[in-house]
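quick one: uridine-5'-diphosphate-glucuronic acid bound model?
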Amino acid sequence: MTKICCIGAGYVGGPTMAMIAKKCPDVQVMVVDINEERIVAWQTDDLPIYEPGLLEVVQEALGRNLFFSTDVDQGIRDADIVFVSVNTPTKTFGEGAGYASDLQYWELCARRIKEVSTSDKIIVEKSTLPVRTAEAMERVLHSGDNPVHFEVLSNPEFLAEGTAIEDLEDPDRVLIGGHETESGQKALQTLVDIYATWIPRERILTTNVWSSELSKLTANAFLAQRVSSINAISALCEATGADVADVAHAIGTDSRIGSKFLKASIGFGGSCFKKDILNLVYLCETYGLQAPADYWRQVVAMNEYQETRFVTTMLRSMFNTIASKRIAIFGFAFKADTGDTRESPAIRVCRELAGEHAKVVVSDPKAIANARVELSDLLDQIGFEEDPYAAAEGAHAIALLTEWKQYKELDFQRIYDSMAKPAFIFDGRNMLDHQALFNIGFEVYSIGKGNKTHLK
Ligand code: NAD
Ligand code: UGA
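yep, here:
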C-alpha cells in the first residue's frame, strides 16, 4: 500500500489530501501539522476551514485511509511520498522584505525530512514556491551523511477557495514537474499514476521542475492581472458614463480574451495573488530584469488604488465627513463561500473608515471570527454583528464587500426603513439590483457604473 504524508493541514493540504484519500482507497494518507487545534478540528464535524462540500469528502475517507496527526516525524518516516504544503508568506524582514517568499517553514520541513527518514522518498512541493526552490531544497535534503535518496517533484495546486472540491474533483489540469533523470521520471510517473485514478491522463501535464514552479506564480499573476485590468477600466467607466459590466461582456465574448475573471470589484484579496506577484517581482529583480519587475508590480499597485478609491468615493458622496457615522460592512471574507479573510480588501476599507472615525460594524456569515483577529487592534472602534439587519440598523451607509448570495435575498425595504437618511449603499461587487434600491430611496454607488442619487 502506497503511503502518503502531507505536512501542512491548511486550506490546501486538508482538501487536497482528503480528495486523494477519497479517490484512491488503496493509498494511505496521513496529514500532519504542528497546529494541534487544526488537527483536532479536522476530525470533527466542525472543520477548521469553511469550504462547500468538504465535510462529506473528509468523512468518506476519515479513519479508512485518511488520518490526521501532530506526530510529524512518524508521518514522514512511514511515508513513500511526502507532500509539503506549509505556508510560504511574504518575507517581512531582511533581504527581500515585502517581496520575497519566506521559506523558513519549508526549509524546516526539509530539515525534518532529512533528519528522520530511514527510506528513500519522493518529496512533492505542493506549496507555491519561487522558481528553483527545488535546487535549494535538494541541497538541504542531501546534506550530511544520510544515505537515503530524495527525489523532489513540483506539483503546484491551482484550487480556488470556495470551489476547492469542484476544482480538485475536476481540475482544468494537474501540473507535475520532475527532473529529466531516470529517477526523476520514475518519481514523476508514480505521482501521475495517483492523479490518473480520477483525472483524464491528457489533463495531467508533465514538465521539468523549473517550468512547473514558475507556471504556478505565472498563473496567479495572469489571473490577478485580469482583475486589475478590468478594475482600471472601471475607474474610467465612472468618469465617462460607460458601464463596466457592458464593457466586460463586450470584450469577454472575444474568445481570445474570454469571459472569466473580468468582474470589476473593490479589488482582489486572498492569501496568494499579492504574495505571488510580489515574489515574481522579486525574482525578476534578482535576475536583473527591472522592466518585467515594474510591469508586475503595477498589478498590485492598481489593486491598492482600487481599494482606496472605494473609500474615497464613500467619503466624497457622504459630504466629506463620515466621523461618528455608523457604517455597516456586508461581507468581510475576501470572496464568497469562504471564511478566509487573508488580504481581504475589507481589511483596508475598514481600517480607512475607522481612520475617518466612522463607527464600523462588520457582518459576515462565515468570517466574523477571522475578522476579529484581523482588526484586533481596532476593537474599540469596530463592532461585529453576524446579522446584516442588526448591522444596518441606524447606519448611514452599507458597504457590500463580499458577494455572498444571501445578500441578494435581503429585505432592503426593511433595511432602508431602519437606517439614517439619506441612506447610502456602496456595492463593491456590483451584485445588487441598483434600480430597485434606488426606487426604495437609497443613494446607490457601485463600481464602474453611474451613481443613482436623489440628492440634487
Ligand atoms: P495555511 O496557512 O492554511 O496552512 C499551512 C499549514 O502548515 C498550517 O496549518 C501550519 O501550521 C502548517 N505548518 C507550518 N510549518 C509547519 C511545520 N514545520 N511542520 C508542520 N506543519 C507546519 O496555508 P495554505 O493556504 O494551505 O497554503 C499553503 C501553500 O499552498 C502556500 O504556499 C500557498 O501559496 C499555496 N496555495 C494556497 C492556495 C489557497 O487557496 N489557500 C491555493 C493554491 C496554493
Ligand atoms: C486563486 C486562484 O484562482 C487559484 O487558481 C490559485 O490556486 C489560488 O489563488 C492560490 O494560489 O491561492 P483564490 O485566491 O482562492 O484562488 O480565489 P479567486 O477566485 O482567484 O479570487 C481571488 C480574488 O479576486 C478574490 O478577492 C475575488 O473576489 C477577486 N476577483 C476574482 C475579482 O475581483 N474579480 C474576478 O473577476 C475574479
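The chain has a mean pLDDT of 97.
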